[in-house]
């Protein structure tokens, strides 16, 4: 019997998380894994209990014509990686040595947070236009792997 690989399993979980997102621009999912166990997950969206952009008549960034990757503070959503990190903190678990499976390459802000958390490996499915994040993660020694289905 052929079993699904760990990378395939956790990337599928990240993709399922992305399906929870209501973002009008991009749906992103993330799963933090330690010792082949998912310890936290997240998707991009507003903080719990807050209205989603679709409920407010659309995306503020779209209305203002903000290009992807710029002025991220003009978004009411947390990134999937940020939600996974916060979930880890709420449960009191450590991210040291974890692997992050994420549907899209992390932005620079998330890259800094993931490095500080102690993530040792990031597996991403789709690229993202942020050369600063790539340089930063390379400098910190975090292993970056583009996901390839087995």
UniProtKB/TrEMBL annotation:
What is the enzyme's class at the highest EC level? hydrolase
Q: Which GO terms describe its biological process?
A: pyrimidine nucleotide metabolic process
Question: What positions does UniProt annotate as the active site of this protein?
Answer: 81 (proton donor)
Q: Which Pfam families match?
A: dCMP_cyt_deam_1 (PF00383)
Question: What are its GO cellular component terms?
Answer: cytoplasm
Q: Which UniProt keywords apply?
A: Hydrolase, Metal-binding, Zinc
SUPFAM superfamilies in the record: Cytidine deaminase-like
The catalytic activity of this protein is classed by the Enzyme Commission as: 3.5.4.33
Q: Where is the CMP/dCMP-type deaminase domain?
A: 5-139
Q: Which cofactors does it use? A: Zn(2+)
Recorded GO molecular functions are: dCMP deaminase activity; tRNA-specific adenosine-34 deaminase activity; zinc ion binding
Chain positions recorded as Zn(2+) binding sites: 79, 107, 110
Record-stated family: Belongs to the cytidine and deoxycytidylate deaminase family.
- PANTHER family registered for this protein in UniProt: DEOXYCYTIDYLATE DEAMINASE, DEOXYCYTIDYLATE DEAMINASE-RELATED
Recorded protein name is: tRNA-specific adenosine deaminase
- Lineage, highest ranks first: Bacteria, Bacillati, Bacillota, Clostridia, Neomoorellales
């Amino acid at each position: 019997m052929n079993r699904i690989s760990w990378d395939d399993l956790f990337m599928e979980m990240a993709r399922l998380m992305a399906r929870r997102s209501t973002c009008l621009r991009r749906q992103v999912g993330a799963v933090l894994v330690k010792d082949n166990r998912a310890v936290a997950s997240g998707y991009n969206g507003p903080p719990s209990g807050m209205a989603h952009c679709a409920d407010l008549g659309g995306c503020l960034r779209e209305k203002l014509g903000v290009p992807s990757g710029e002025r991220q503070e003009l978004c009411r959503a947390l990134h999937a990686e940020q939600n996974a990190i916060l979930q880890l903190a709420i449960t009191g678990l450590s991210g040291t040595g974890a692997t992050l499976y994420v549907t899209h390459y992390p932005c620079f802000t998330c890259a800094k947070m993931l490095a500080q958390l102690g993530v040792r490996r990031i597996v991403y499915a789709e690229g993202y236009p942020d050369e600063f994040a790539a340089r930063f993660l390379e400098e910190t020694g975090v292993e970056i792997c583009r996901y390839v289905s087995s």
